[in-house]
């Protein structure tokens, strides 16, 4: 338990993140402003460093965002970004490993690190850990060593081992209920060759074909200092962070310039429909639209729209399908705001034996009602409050997925400024009913991908009464009348 003085200091530090409204101003949740103060500097090799001071606890979050993901791959060479994430956990030239991930995790366990992990998505590869302040040098040594001194450890045996791990992960994911859905959604919402038309984990064929030279070229192209954002958040000051970043990362190569995609929203013409059968207990339908990328005003408005439709038990689709008509057991509506285009998704799971046709008709009716009249003022305010509260909760942590370090890294990587989250918050705060209505009418049109997942039919074979010990005897051939000679002559004439 904190001593009273320490507790008061902690509360003061926490409240400094939230600017209270001026006296006499409305005191609704959306009147508050959240600030994650930070400093940004760039090393001579191009590495971007962002520092956020938070001295409530003696820990520092280390978050590294390499601006490379599966959208940087190409047809026939998919799965490389995720495969390389695995390879970075297997040790480096000075942190010796046996080809598995024990070297990294054992080193992190010895210093008491928390949340040590890595993730890959279509747009970036992220490595992160939260360490005690006195162990920060260990974390920076490890991260800089596997960034700058990795190629000497990657041989055919190590590549084959991690290739097998990734392929087993792919099998496990696809063998889960509804496990093949996202491969179909990615392919169904983007044309062939679009950088979002394949999944991050890639195809078995491409993983099998990945050569040692392919992996080495991937590292040389994308794992240079100029393609990295390093965030240090927590019990550290800017001067110390600058000195340590120079000490551990300053010597590393910049890497070549990396080509970047601009916004590229796939255009679907009309409704695309696909139906599959899977080993699932309940039928499910997905309806997916292509929408603008992360940080655009319409993207923010559509996130609020998704709350109106499916966030909480009083949302329109949840209330109608689960409570009122009892056609479904679950409703989810969300927006995935990727770097060059996003996806808006409605997912509804039918009751056992339920009718997806009735569910789809209800979705169409509720969307038509929303597009005709827009949301209500109460729905808008509730969505704003939910979004604001979720952001406040995320800023209570310095590290981990969605923590303050993650927020700063994402906005610097995708929008060129760690403070860009303020722009998004402002879009949320000032959103009007007409903004949501207009965005929904612009993007939630008939250009939609619809995927139905049906349980396997419960067919059963009938009991057999056939004697298969020998062939059955043929029956008596039926008789037939031959044509007369005059008839044959007439037909041949």
Characterization of the model:
This protein starts with a helix and ends with a helix. It has helices at residues 4-15, 80-87, 102-110, 136-148, 156-174, 181-189, 204-209, 212-222, 238-249, 297-310, 316-324, 356-373, 377-394, 404-415, 421-430, 433-443, 485-492; strands at residues 18-19, 33-34, 39-42, 48-53, 59-66, 114-120, 125-132, 228-234, 272-278, 284-291, 328-337, 342-350, 449-455. The protein has 2 domains: 37-249, Metalloenzyme, LuxS/M16 peptidase-like (Cytochrome Bc1 Complex, Chain A, domain 1, 2-Layer Sandwich); 272-455, Metalloenzyme, LuxS/M16 peptidase-like (Cytochrome Bc1 Complex, Chain A, domain 1, 2-Layer Sandwich), CATH 3.30.830. Helix 10 crosses helix 13 (377-394) and helix 12 packs across helix 16. The chain is globular, with a radius of gyration of 29 Å. The longest helix is centred in the middle third of the chain and has 19 residues, at 156-174. The model is unreliable at 1-27 (pLDDT under 50). The chain is built from 17 helices and 13 strands. Strands 3-4-8-5-7-6 form a 6-stranded mixed β-sheet, with helices on both faces. Strands 9-13-10-12-11 form a 5-stranded mixed β-sheet, with helices on both faces. A two-stranded antiparallel ribbon has the order 1-2. It is of the alpha+beta class and 493 residues long.
Can I get a quick summary?
The protein has 493 residues and is α+β, with helices and mostly antiparallel strands. The protein has 17 helices and 13 strands. 40% of the residues lie in helices and 17% in strands.
- The number of E-state strands comes to 13
CATH-level-4 superfamily name of the largest domain:
Metalloenzyme, LuxS/M16 peptidase-like
**How much helical structure, as a percent, in the residues?**
40-55%
Count structural domains.
Answer: 2
Low-confidence stretches: 1-27
Beta-strand percent range: 15-25%
The order of strands across the largest sheet is 3-4-8-5-7-6
Radius of gyration: 29 Å
Please report the number of helical segments: 17
Q: What letter string, H or E per element, gives the SSE order?
A: HEEEEEHHEEHHHHHEHEEHHEEHHHHHEH
CATH fold title of the largest domain: Cytochrome Bc1 Complex, Chain A, domain 1
Principal-axes geometry comes out as: globular
Assembly level: single chain
Distance, first to last CA = 112 Å
Mean pLDDT: 91
The CATH architecture of the largest domain can be given as: 2-Layer Sandwich
What is the CATH class designation of the largest domain?
Answer: Alpha Beta
**What would you call the structural class?**
alpha+beta
